[in-house]
Amino acid sequence: MWEGYGVNPDDLSKWTDAYLVELVAMDSISLASDARARRWNTHVDRMQRAQLELRKTADGRAAIRTMMSHPVPTVARWSASHCLFWAESEARAYLQALASSGGVGSFEAKMVLREFNAGRLRMGWEPKSR
Predict the structure, then answer these.
(1) pLDDT in tens, the chain (130 residues)
(2) CATH class for domain 9-117?
(3) Where are the domains of the chain?
């Protein structure tokens, strides 16, 4: 892939699918036990690998941006959190509405916005090798 020339459509599809599949899997996990937390972390690492690839190009960032309106809550929330770095106004509006809703995900949205506003939110971290 050449920087500035977009991404190969096959690679874009592969990384977009991987990002989505891992977020949907995360949505189905209740974090009530250590075993489930380990499974969750494995999905987070896989999702992060895809996110790091997607964020490299405008096409990849646009793919994540479209997922802010996804019907699966975990997909929409994580996508909005990632999009704060390149589509801040849209992502911020989504997260602020969620934060003020008092519903599922409102606490996480508040924390994401707090950390982003303070300059502490990091989305470029490298996942552990598993």
Answers:
(1) 323 334 566 789 999 999 999 999 999 987 666 677 888 899 999 999 999 999 999 999 999 999 999 999 999 999 999 999 999 999 999 999 999 999 889 999 999 999 999 999 999 999 987 5
(2) mainly alpha
(3) 9-117
User: What is the value of pTM for the model shown?
Assistant: 0.88
Quick one: 47 exposed, middle or buried, by C-beta within 10 A (0-12, 13-18, 19+)? buried
Pair of tokens at residue 7: 């991404």
Can you list the pairs that 119-128 forms with residues at least 24 positions away whose Cβ atoms lie under 8 Å?
121/81, 121/84, 123/51, 123/55, 123/81, 123/82, 123/84, 123/85, 124/52, 124/55, 125/48, 126/48, 126/52, 127/44, 127/45, 127/46, 127/48, 127/49, 128/45
Strand ranges in 1-130 using DSSP code E only, listed in sequence order: none
